[in-house]
Amino acid sequence: MRSFGFAFTAACVFLGALTSTSSAQSGMSGSQIAAKVAQRANDDPRKGAITFEIVSKGKSRRRTAAMVRTETGATHRLLLAFDKPSSIKGTTFLSYDHKAAQKTDETWLFLPATERTRRVPASDRSDSFMGTELSFGDVKDSFKFGLADYTFSSGGKSANGSLILKGKAKSDAIARQIGYGSFTAEIDPKTWFPRVINFNDPAGRKLKTIVVRDVKRVGDSWTATDFRVSNHRTGRATLVTVAGLSAASGVSNSLFDPSRLDRAAGRMP
Amino acid sequence: MLLSSVGALAQTVSGETAIGADEDGVSKLFLLLEPEISGPIAEDLDGTFSVRFEADGSRTGVGSRQSFSSISAPVIKGDDVRLEIDEAYLDIIAGDLDVTVGKQIIAWGSIDGVRVTDTINPARLTESVARNQRPDRIPIWAVRLRGRLGAMDFDLVAAPDPTVNQIALADDAFFPQAPRFLAGLPSTDNLPPITREERNDLIADGTLGARLAFRFEATDLRFSLVSAPDHDGVPVANGPVIEIQHDRRHTIGAELVRQIGPVVARFEVAWTPDAMFNIADTFATQTTQDSRIIAGFGADFTGPLDTYINLQLIIDHAASDERLVRPDTDVITTLRAQKSFADEDYNARLEWFSSFTDGDGVLRLELSRRLNDQMSLFVGGDYFYGPRNGLFGQYVDRSRGLIGLRLEL
Predict the structure, then answer these.
(1) β-pairing, A221-231 with A46-56?
(2) Chain B neighbors of A103, CB-CB under 8 A
(3) Which one of A173, A208, A229, B216 is CB 3.0 to 4.6 Å from A133, fit for a cystine?
(4) Cα dihedral angle (A226, A122, B137, B166), rounded to 10 degrees?
(5) Which of A85, A104, A131 lies closest to B217 in CB terms?
């Protein structure tokens, strides 16, 4: 699995119980913290209604989508079917995050205007997702940091007890692909979920800040149900909320079939 | 159950109005409205119903009516005003099987704008390639069955609907002018009347199609077989008129789509062993049945300044011992570049079609401004160039400027 950037995996995710003691945590290396974040449980099927509120220059726009995510063991799958506004109704996003390191992650987008499902190029992962301050990579991932993408270091502990994790893109090429050159994150050691992430662009300039304001748990998996993404370059922000988060048991595999993505919007659980 | 589900049906209205002008004055005065209702009707049963209302009070027109089958013919079929049932289908989920029954669009293929294996639905060609949606597929009545067997997706289609491509009327702005589309006859005002054979034999002129798809890591591989009427048709002299005939043809296709680093590469090829062609210098009296091969190569990637780029090369070859009206080989390139800016309030788009064979092309530019989530204003134009007997050069007098409004309510 190549996990690009941080990751918002649709509403975002993660973990359950933690056994490490506080003193052990403070002595953890950056790689150990990043591994804990990457290993966070994310396999419980979940569904909900996700709203993206894009705020810019005093004006705001809303985009809503039905969300469902499941995991097969080898692949984490996320499906978003937009229903509002009308201009994007029926647009459907599907991502496969393969856990095997050698497998390339895959992303598809069905656009009603073209009546076809397209694979999204890897380079698009740093592009804006549906006009929000999230990138395709952010949406596809799960508030996790790609272990193959960054060199990690620990920044100690913050005043509120969070662990400070720092990451630097392993190469300029990776930085360009994921859209981030480095980041600093505050990790909640109880959940291994990032609560604040500051991203810099490949040139080292301050780019985005993500503040997670609320998380909810389904099974062992947590989802960020309220977070804000601020783009320091554009002055814009996107507020993301997830309503009605609940278990999505019995979801048909055909819902996640890229060849039938044109019908997925009408079949969301 | 049924009544309680009706509340979940979504109602939308999409549409466009546009005014165009060329060197002869107003060339397009167009209104399109497409109300749609869709959603769950019962458990595992979804429905979609939409109508298409269009009106044009200009030389562009709303196109020929003869291309429609009896069951797909417009409900209102005036010269300037049309009302059609657009899509009307039920989608039944039976386990891992999807069954779609009704008037629908089945979009196969992966090359954009040029139909290689995408031969199930006919298309509206009333403005040649100068349409916002391209191909602008015409929904047809069909039964479609989709499912998965092991590692293979299958997609089966039976369509008892002989509707074929809709072209402009003979007096309209985008009626074909090049001799290659008129059986070699010179494009003059003295052309014999052009008619189309009737499209009423739902079974004999219906369509059957099958597609098998395999998905590997970051790769899609698909094979298809389609038996359908030739949507383009071949003009044949029939007494005092030229009749466009749509003989059945068979198309065997293959597609490969692969994600290669930052690029999604697409390859598509179709072989038609029984394509019909006009023989040169016979004035539409003689045709020949030979092989036709169309291959398309395409790549999508993000270019400089975060611009979306779509590049394609299409080669269309007719393998015949006869000297044909059309060139033996057409080589066409397409470029699409698109970029949004100013908080996505503006969107700029450039499209360029170019024929190496004919030395002609068309350049299309558009700038749109989002007024709100329901409306956008656009301004643009189409510039046709090249010799008048070419694919695009035949419309060299149809270069135009356009302004209009798009709606999504």
Answers:
(1) unpaired
(2) 217
(3) A229
(4) 140
(5) A104
State the complex-level ipTM: 0.82
Residue B198 structure tokens: 């009737």
Amino acid at B331: V
What is the nearest CA distance from B236 to chain A, expressed in angstroms? Answer: 34
- Cβ separation of B155 and A259 shorter than 8 Å? yes
**What is the rounded distance in angstroms from the CA atom of residue A71 to the CA atom of residue A66?**
17
* Residue type for position B300: D
Residues A83 and A65 sit within 8 Å (Cβ to Cβ): yes
Q: Which is more confident, A268 or B110?
A: B110
What strands, in cross-sheet order, belong to the sheet with B234-238? B194-196, B241-245, B234-238
Q: Are A240 and A51 in contact (CB under 8 A)?
A: yes
Considering only residues B302 and B137, tell me which one the structure prediction assigns the higher pLDDT: B137
Residues contacting B260, CB < 8 A, separation 6+: none
CB B44 within 8 A of CB B93: yes
Provide the β-strand partners of residue B40.
B46
DSSP B397: G
Determine the residue type at A190: K
For B304-399, where are the E strands, in sequence order? 307-319, 329-341, 346-355, 360-370, 375-385
Pair of tokens at residue B385: 């160039």
Minimal Cβ distance to B302: which of A83, A89, A121:
A121
Residues of A with CB under 8 A from a CB of B: 54, 56-57, 61, 83, 85-87, 89, 98, 103-104, 106, 113-116, 118-124, 127-128, 131, 177, 234, 236, 252-254, 257-260, 262-263, 266-267
In this prediction, residue A21 carries a pLDDT of 40
Among B267, B179, B275, residue whose Cα is nearest residue B223: B267
Q: Which residue has the higher pLDDT, B386 or A220?
A: B386
Q: Cβ of B46 and A115 within 8 Å?
A: no
Q: Which two tokens stand for residue A231?
A: 């783009």
Q: What is the pLDDT of residue A14?
A: 29
- What is the distance between the alpha carbons of residues B228 and B230, in angstroms, rounded to a whole number? 6
Each residue of B230-277: pLDDT tens digit?
Answer: 999 998 888 888 888 999 999 999 999 998 877 889 999 999 999 999
Is the pLDDT reported for residue B314 higher than 50? yes
> Minimal Cα–Cα distance from A221 to chain B, Å?
27
Predicted confidence at residue B159, as pLDDT, reads 96
Residues of chain A with pLDDT under 50: 1-24
Identity of the amino acid at A233: R
Burial class from Cβ neighbours inside 10 Å (0-12, 13-18, 19+) for residue A55 reads: middle
Tokens linked to B247 = 């003989």
Contact B164, B231 (CB under 8 A): yes
Statement: residue B128 has pLDDT above 90: no
Judged by average pLDDT, the poorest of A131-140, B382-391, B398-407 is A131-140
Provide the greatest CA pair distance for chain B: 66
Closest of B107, B36, B114, B78 to residue B310, by C-alpha: B114
Q: Is the pTM of this model over 0.95?
A: no
Sign of CA dihedral A162, A164, A165, A168: positive
Radius of gyration of chain B (CA): 21
CA atoms within 13 A on the CB side of B338: 10
Q: Give the A:B interface size as CB pairs under 8 Å.
A: 103
Residue with tokens 């044949």: B236
Higher-confidence residue of B166 and A124: namely B166
Number of neighbouring beta carbons within 10 Å of residue B384: 26
CB contact under 8 A, A267 and B155: no
